[in-house]
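Format is chain and fold; as here:
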Amino acid sequence: MDSQRYVRQIMLREIGEEGQKRLASSSVLIVGLGGLGSIVAPYLNGAGIGKLGLVDNDKVSLSNLHRQILYTESQIGLPKATCAAAFLAERSGHTRILAYVESLQPSNASKLIADYDVVVDCTDNFFTRFLIDDTCRQLGKRWVYGAIGEFEGRVAVFDSKSSGSFSDLYPERDFLIGLPNAPSGVSGPLPGVVGSVQAMETIKLIAGVDGVLIGKLFTINLLTLETNIIDFRLTQRQKTAGL
């Protein structure tokens, strides 16, 4: 571990040398390298995560560039996963980076997720999110959910041992999966804010910092700057009790 590289992070009482060692020995799979993934990946790379997996089968397009800051105009038409891997490799040789130019599907989810400690969802569809949740629960993995739209974002953390499932948060599974995945507007800074929260929750989760959003949903509206934290485990217990 290069202590000088991470000195400003090690200075934090909540992380320290022990937390930095945990980060260095950990592995994180990032699913989706769009607006959220463009923020999560560099921050986890910079934090000293030992191994990063990057999953995305999409290619860079011109309409991505107002919010997906990993990419440049010269990379339009190239696979996001390989472009992101090249950028991260230039920033830090301490992290082992693996690029998977494919989408997460039932046929490969268990194989990919089994090799990592934590999964970070940076996707834009409910099918993949429910697949991540199902697979992580089956394998006993923890994962960090993030979603953005227009000016609003959401983040939650799931641990199969101590929190509810994604279905507790979104019980209308079949309806949500069946919704058309139509493009919607999104403000450029929004993934920067939400992706940063996802990255911080991942660091806290791995380093053993208190206050992780396990079983809780964080929401933010950038127009009003209103934020909320909802304990959906409590909400689910109240529903079960008929309250």
Remarks:
- The chain has one domain: 7-240.
- Residues 237-243 have pLDDT under 50 and may be disordered.
